[in-house]
Design a protein that fits this description.
heterodimer; A: mainly alpha; about 85% helix; about 0% strand; B: Rossmann fold; five-stranded parallel β-sheet; about 10% strand; globular
Amino acid sequence: MSIALTLIARDVRRGYAGGGAALVCGFFLLAVVLFPFAIGPDRAVLVRVGAGAIWVAALLAALLPVERLVAPDVESGWFDQIRVHGLSLPLVMALRIVAHWLAFAPPLMLAALVAAGLFGLEAAALVRVEAGLLLGTPGLAALAVATGALTAGLRGAGGLAGLLLLPLALPLLIFGAGSGDMGALKLLAAVSLMLVAGAPWVAAAAIRSVRD
Amino acid sequence: MRGGRLLFARLSLTLAEGEAAIVTGPNGVGKSSLLRLAAGLIAPFEGGVARTGRMALMTEDIALDPERRLGDALLFWGRLDRPADVRGRVAEALEAVGLAELAEVPVRLLSTGQRRRAALARVLAARAALWLLDEPGNGLDADGVAMLERVIAQHRADGGAVLLTTHQPLGLAEAKPLALDGFVPA
């Protein structure tokens, strides 16, 4: 097994271990279920707000694993050993984003099928939501990893992570929830790509500043 | 430098094959920082560190996933070191530190002394030329300290080099002493 696969396999295992993915999906579905209670059972309204509600729930669910994405490895000296092994920190963080996406996005996209049913979304709308999640969740995973690194070791990291992640995720929300046309999907992909490209460097710099 | 304070200056140390150096000094004088500097984790304010061959670092942070079984946690690092015969290397390392029977036990259930031994096993399994050991005897019982002296002697006999910090006397033959006293010459 190559070094990259070894690192990804470890992080994916940690993502699913202890019901981590199930917790994210459970929270996501619970948040989605709250919307019909809040805005009423009018089917036309539910269909209209469905995609937006699913994206808001996805953003909130993305916050849950942030605290355990990076901080435990900073505290245990794991990243020191990675550096002693001569591995590039930005590369390791890029692989962590891949692993986090694998542990976070597929279960979320499956749960989104259930959520779409709750809102009575039609097949075409469901496809658009799933396409938006497919394009947007890599950016969301990158933001989560970068935020996890920036808040590692800080007191009240969970709350701070929300304050950092949610504003930065606004472009994903705007283009994801409004992904009715190809233009929005292209913009969503561009934002997601930009976040995936930048987050490993931000995360690596944050980890170095904590340990140096 | 640490926190804007100069820890040591005009420090020169060379370690060849089979050599060991023991860094001593009071708390906070910079022993661990010296090891981190040697490992390349921090950069010197002035000067440099030159290394040949691979190195392995042991600090108070054991860097083993607490939820994984000890053997699997060591296999992870073994695969990063070199993929060849990783299971054999890990088994040998566990045997050498006296933890062979605990290979299937989750890391979180190990005692302090056993965790130190596990960290030493990670260093052993790496088969690195240079060992950087920060207070390796901390938390070890008398048998553990004897084991530590044994594996270090074997490593040196195999041509490896060791730089370690310690507060307790260790029986290492012909080790270079390096005492840090906090005095920084102007």
